[in-house]
């Protein structure tokens, strides 16, 4: 391999470096290469206990701490200027810090007056922030405290108690409270409402609903408005409390609200936003229909109902539903009654353009969020209390799109629909852009 020769700008010194080994972010690539080579020659592992990364972390931390204490004292370590100059160095104290490369023993310098407050490794601090981020990330993926404890012990050789792990994740509660009470946009084109159930051990293990409101902004981004823990089965009365809170946080209008067929929910939505169009989720309506039918007839019922919700107009949908009632009403009259009752909230999407129809006919937009939440919840089994359940769900929600790719896909998918919303709900979306 041919060396690349460059000249130093200030000294004129000729510097040789290997192609493909440029300095990155100020890190000397050749120095790193020499350190790795020395470690291999000495038989030193790069990772693991006593490995090169641990030793480097120790050196870097201690060097940074020495730099921190030099500033307030006004002299370097070993400098005679520090003698008889008032406050001075007073040895070191040892402590073990948990880092992303495992436990590292560091020597923290002290001063005689006890005024030195290190910032890189603070007093009483036993973990660097990267470790706390790792614990929160693992918790968001659904790992229990025991599983996180085992992971840290196996991968990093770190003995971290379950209580410590729980304490780390508890730090998100303050952020969750701030997020839950943040101001919202004045108007949203669509708001999706749904609830999932979690098991909470409150005297006895019981299913409790977690209410979720997800909105599409006027820019086409996804915005989860909040999470609320209910005190029993899912009910329209509690939804009214949720919607009232959302309105009080600044949401003056919503063009459409998509929800399941819960009794009383359309009235709660109308009370909150009188101009909102309420759309019952077609998927929920189909699932509820199957509850009244034998398993052997599900496929036939699904085929017979498909022309109803894919009809080009409401009049055509009525004709197709009449055909369904003639074919299946005698065997399953409860399904016919179900659709008749839900008809006013089922048909609104049929009056819109295809761009709007495809995104508001169901709560599929929120199902991907629910799937991530359920995965985290299933890993826990059940929760000791409501706060623990909400913390788990919040962490799962905050880790939905770590790369930002989902946000871009979401925006591209909603762009055609939002253009149609502009024409259909003329003037109502402009308030969201002020």
TrEMBL record:
Source superkingdom: Bacteria
Look up keyword Plastid and say if it applies: no
Sorted UniProt keywords: DNA recombination, DNA-binding, Transposable element, Transposition
Q: Where is this region: Disordered?
A: 70-95
Which InterPro entries does this entry report, sorted A to Z?
A: Transposase_mutator (IPR001207)
PANTHER family from the UniProt entry? MUTATOR FAMILY TRANSPOSASE, TRANSPOSASE FOR INSERTION SEQUENCE ELEMENT IS1081
Please give the function described in this protein's UniProt entry: Required for the transposition of the insertion element.
**Which protein family is named in the record?**
Belongs to the transposase mutator family.
Q: What is this protein called?
A: Mutator family transposase
